[in-house]
Design brief:
With about 190 residues, the chain is of the alpha+beta class. About 20% of the residues lie in helices and about 35% in strands. The protein has a six-stranded mixed β-sheet with strand order 4-6-8-9-10-11. Strand 12 and strand 13 form a beta hairpin. It is globular and about 45 Å long.
């Protein structure tokens, strides 16, 4: 569940950072369309799916694109979006990360494991992720059923498809990645018993 901070207008990134600096370290906040959102701790299923995806992506990247790495919960910040600072559940970024860097202005894949509270903001995040030229893929993964929406940039245009069921294949050739959908749900209540 996300909780929005009461505010009279859209916050800029600088205003958001000033606000965030006043909050306790254990709080996780994101800026979406100028609204500061407190992120509540996710359900274990959410975390397991994100961990499975991160591990599988890193295994593929090690062989196919060793200059890239998949990381959970990184911040993103794009200059052309002054009212956004989302943190995807998993993102693929360049492996050369300067010490102290928390937010990235370049990413190649983002994944969001969807919660009920994401419904009103997921389209805004998706628009933000699609506007970033280096980004090749967006995964919107459900945690209540084995299904995901995949947006891929193919020859400069975004193509969307929905994958459903344990045997559906998620193929991301730009990352040397391919797996059955059930691999993302391993060790969750949705895994085949």
């Amino acid at each position: 569940m996300n909780v929005a901070a009461k505010q009279p207008r859209k916050l800029t990134i600088d205003e958001f950072l000033a606000f965030y600096a006043t909050r306790p370290d254990e709080e996780q906040w994101q800026l979406i369309d100028g609204v500061a959102l407190l992120m509540t701790p996710p359900f274990p299923t959410h975390q397991i799916i994100a961990s499975n995806l991160e591990r599988l992506l890193n295994d593929a990247l090690e062989a196919h694109a060793p200059h890239l790495i998949a990381i959970q919960r990184i911040g993103t910040e794009l200059a052309e979006f002054p009212h956004y600072r989302p943190e995807p559940d998993v993102a693929v970024v360049d492996i050369e990360i300067p010490p102290g860097q928390r937010h990235f202005d370049r990413f190649y894949l983002v994944a969001e494991v969807l919660s009920e509270s994401d419904e009103d903001r997921v389209d805004l995040k998706r628009e933000y992720y699609r506007a970033h030229d280096p980004n090749r893929a967006i995964l919107l993964i459900r945690q209540d059923v084995q299904e995901l929406k995949l947006d891929r940039r193919i020859e400069g245009a975004w193509k969307t498809e929905v994958l459903s069921g344990p045997e559906a294949r998620l193929d991301l050739p730009d990352f040397g990645f391919s797996c059955r959908l059930d691999a993302l749900y391993r060790k969750t209540f949705l895994a085949a018993r």
